[in-house]
Amino acid sequence: MGKLTGSAVRNERAPMGLDAGAGRPLLLVDVDGVLNLQAPPHQEQDADLDCRPYMAAGQQVLIPAGTRERLRRLAEAFEPVWATTWEHDAHPAFQEALGLGASPWPVIEMSGCARDGTWKLPPVAAALDGRWATRPAAWIDDDIGPDAFQWAARRSAAGAPTLLVVPFAHAGMTGAHAEDLLAFARANASSARGEVRQPGGRERPR
Q1: Can you tell me the distance from the alpha carbon of 144 to that of 167, in angstroms, rounded to the nearest whole number?
Q2: What fold characterizes domain 9-189?
Q3: What share of the chain is helix, strand, coil (3-state, %, to 5)?
Q4: What residue spans define the domains of the chain?
Q5: Measured distance CA(40)–CA(159) in Å, rounded
Q6: What is the mean pLDDT of residues 144-149?
Q7: Which residues pair with 39 in a beta bridge?
Q8: What are phi and psi of 85, to 5 degrees?
Q9: For residue 55, how many other CB atoms are within 10 A of its CB?
Q10: CB burial class (10 A; 0-12, 13-18, 19+) of residue 153?
Q11: Nearest Cα residue to 167 out of 192, 187, 144
């Protein structure tokens, strides 16, 4: 599949259209395990989980009911950025299913990933410790380990509140996750004007 021409984050360069002094926090969004479930719901644990199959880029994906509305609310509170192996394909593939706008979100390209630990951490840290070093940011991904929480704690201590949210891959982003993220956005919406608040993290979903 061809790639869209659009903004990308490489090393320390921030994408066009995202100002380092903007008033909203950043939200880094994974796809698989967050928006698209990685396994059918477990019969006993998730019997009430309402999921809807869609076709995305020729693949069947499983999106929990409510994901579209949660993402819409988050996109109003944050400036969203793709942090997924779907990279530039994420927006066209999920635009209809998730009700995304016409303009693609910026993308953190997954080059230079780590072999051990949180494998996405090097490109994510390169983006958030570069031009965005003072920007509050949240990152939701089903594959985040202790090394990422240590990095987030250091970034928060340096004055850039950083929240990590880790859903279970078979359940994806829940309403509780969305509420945690929205609370973080409200607490840190004015950080760009020097009012830094409320760093934190969540290791496991609710």
Answers
A1: 10
A2: Rossmann fold (3.40.50)
A3: 30, 20, 55
A4: 9-189
A5: 40
A6: 97
A7: none
A8: -70, -15
A9: 11
A10: middle
A11: 144
